[in-house]
Amino acid sequence: MADTGEGKKEEADYKRLHSFPLIRHSDMPEEMRVEAMKLCVTACKKYSTNNESAAKMIKEMMDKKFGSSWHVVIGEAFGFEITYEVKNLLYMFFGGNLAVCVWKCS
């Protein structure tokens, strides 16, 4: 039983160390990228235990600010191959191993 508590402590320490957003790929304009990154960080912090709600929040806000047809995937250990509009893709990590992919496809 003591190992479970230690494992959770190590995970919490890891997430605290890696709490900054790390952009892996983006072809968005600077202003859009910064706004999308801040929105992703806010949603992931607010819904830290529910990736589906965080993705819904990001999608709805991106649809309002930058027009419709935005898609969002949040999770760990996934791969993807997508078709997207040029200058409308953001792929980033937050909290260590939580990946966020945001793209527009109409």
From TrEMBL:
One of its GO terms (biological process) is microtubule-based process. InterPro entries: DLC_sf, Dynein_light_chain_typ-1/2. GO terms for cellular component: axoneme; dynein complex; microtubule. It comes from the Eukaryota. CDD domains: DLC-like_DNAL4. Keywords: Cell projection, Cilium, Cytoplasm, Cytoskeleton, Dynein, Microtubule, Motor protein. It is found in: Cytoplasm, Cytoskeleton, Cilium axoneme. SMART domains: Dynein_light. Pfam families: Dynein_light. Belongs to the dynein light chain family. Force generating protein of respiratory cilia. Produces force towards the minus ends of microtubules. Dynein has ATPase activity. Consists of at least two heavy chains and a number of intermediate and light chains. This is Dynein light chain. It comes from Mesitornis unicolor.
